[in-house]
């Protein structure tokens, strides 16, 4: 694999309004694996009997699992490999359940050339409904 294939877009390649997305259907295995990786075994995620007693009336996926799909967009699509996460704000708007397809979407909204920062509006949706929204800042290398 060449060095070029290990790098996504450079700062000079970015322009306001660029977008990218990633979609994944959440499975039982995803929730169990995320609980194991994160250590978050909150019963609302892993225990159906308990989750039925909550306002959600059933198990829900970890909010940070959906947020991780935003990271996937940044690391693989826009700006892609080589970019570095600097900040992320999140608001969780609705639950995600097993079998839901989450679409993470990012849109470039600001560039700060002196710091090589790119700011993105971030959203995740299920069947068109926003389940997560926020804003992220990434540092993107310039061409040398």
Automatic annotation (TrEMBL):
Domain MaoC-like: 18-122
Lineage top rank: taxon: Bacteria
InterPro entries: Fatty_acid_synthase, HotDog_dom_sf, MaoC-like_dom, UPF0336/Enoyl-CoA_hydratase
GO cellular component, one term: fatty acid synthase complex
Keyword Lyase appears in the UniProt entry: yes
KW rRNA processing (keyword) present: no
GO biological process, one term: fatty acid biosynthetic process
Keywords tagged on the record: Lyase
Protein name, entry field: 3-hydroxybutyryl-CoA dehydratase
Provenance organism: Magnetospirillum fulvum (Rhodospirillum fulvum)
Top-level taxonomy: Bacteria, Pseudomonadati, Pseudomonadota, Alphaproteobacteria, Rhodospirillales
